[in-house]
């Protein structure tokens, strides 16, 4: 499972009233939800129906669209609210729901906040409108987890196979940039950040990973030269106090930021544990 793309869209009219033959008053969601490997979309208005249809078209997985008949016509008072105008022609509603659908790592570039959600897509968010306005499909990736922007290569470094990597740089069309690949640590790949020091030769790419050897209360950062892509020094292990003594820590996404602490570059990241927390 998950080795090959099986993109398809199956549209199913659903819901009570308005006749409709074999699907009259039918609600078959519970029959399909347990099936592994498919995604379910159930829009509540016309704009989201179109936005989800776009996301389904770009998704490498099979998608079932449950479309309530109230989206097509209005016979019952109150269903007129489903008639909505799409925010703009690029409006899209990506599959970023529960479980692994949420953004796992984020980066800021070209005026947008970009996120990855373990699909093969990068989503650009307009922070003013809080809507996704651009989607990039990566042709040479399966499950993106880490992401950061490279200002010199003008591309995104992304973790291509979830925790195992490698970390590759793709252009803004989602195509791999030749020679831009980093073999990630065996302890995993959770997040990436770019430390811009004024030139490619003096800049660094940081990877968030688990401590090695494994430690229940430590996360780690590994540093790479942004030009040669060689490891610089040893991994930096960071001890994070846990409120739940029995909990085990796992690393998360992060980014290198400037002037959060005046005059310093700092790593701001997430660790997963009891409870999850932000570290600086």
Give a description of the structure.
The protein is built from two helices and 18 strands. It folds into two domains: 8-82, 3-Layer(aba) Sandwich (Rossmann fold); 99-279, 6 Propeller (Neuraminidase). The longest helix has 13 residues, at 46-58. By secondary structure, it is mostly beta strands. The strands form five sheets. It has a four-stranded antiparallel beta sheet, with no helix packed on it. Strands 8-9-10-11 form a four-stranded antiparallel beta sheet, with no helix packed on it.
Keywords:
mainly beta; 4-stranded antiparallel sheet; Neuraminidase; 6% helix; 2 helices; 18 strands; Rossmann fold; 280 residues
Give a short summary of the structure.
By secondary structure, the protein is mainly β. It is built from 2 helices and 18 strands. The model has no long low-confidence stretch (mean pLDDT 80).
Global mean pLDDT: 80
- Going by CATH, the homologous superfamily of the largest domain would be TolB, C-terminal domain
CATH class of the largest domain: Mainly Beta
What is the number of helices? 2
List the helices and strands and how they pair.
Elements: E1 8-14, H1 29-32, E2 39-41, H2 46-58, E3 62-68, E4 105-109, E5 112-116, E6 121-126, E7 131-137, E8 147-150, E9 155-159, E10 167-170, E11 176-182, E12 191-195, E13 204-210, E14 218-225, E15 236-239, E16 250-258, E17 265-272, E18 277-279
């Amino acid at each position: 499972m998950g080795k090959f793309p099986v993109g398809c869209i199956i549209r199913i009219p659903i819901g009570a009233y308005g006749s409709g033959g074999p699907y009259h008053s039918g609600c078959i969601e519970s029959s399909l939800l347990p099936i592994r490997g498919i995604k379910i979309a159930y829009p509540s208005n016309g704009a989201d129906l179109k936005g989800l249809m776009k996301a389904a078209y770009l998704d490498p997985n099979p998608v079932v669209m449950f479309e309530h008949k109230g989206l097509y016509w209005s016979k019952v008072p109150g269903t007129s609210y489903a008639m909505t105008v799409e925010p703009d022609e690029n409006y899209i509603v990506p599959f970023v729901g529960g479980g692994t659908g949420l953004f796992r790592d984020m980066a800021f570039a070209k005026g947008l906040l970009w996120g990855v959600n373990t699909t093969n897509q990068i989503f650009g968010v307009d922070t003013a409108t809080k809507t996704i306005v651009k989607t990039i499909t990566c042709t040479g990736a399966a499950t993106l987890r880490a992401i950061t922007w490279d200002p010199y290569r003008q591309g995104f470094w992304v973790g291509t196979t979830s925790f195992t990597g490698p970390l590759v740089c793709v252009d803004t069309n989602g195509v791999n940039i030749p020679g831009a690949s980093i073999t990630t640590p065996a302890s995993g790949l959770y997040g990436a950040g770019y430390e811009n020091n004024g030139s490619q030769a003096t800049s660094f790419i940081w990877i968030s990973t688990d401590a090695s050897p494994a430690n229940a209360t430590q996360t780690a950062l590994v540093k790479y030269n942004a030009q040669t892509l060689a490891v610089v020094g040893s991994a930096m292990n960071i001890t994070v106090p846990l409120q739940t003594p029995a909990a085990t820590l796992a690393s998360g996404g992060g980014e290198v930021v400037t002037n959060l602490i005046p005059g310093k570059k700092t790593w701001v990241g997430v660790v997963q544990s009891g409870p999850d927390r932000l570290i600086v």
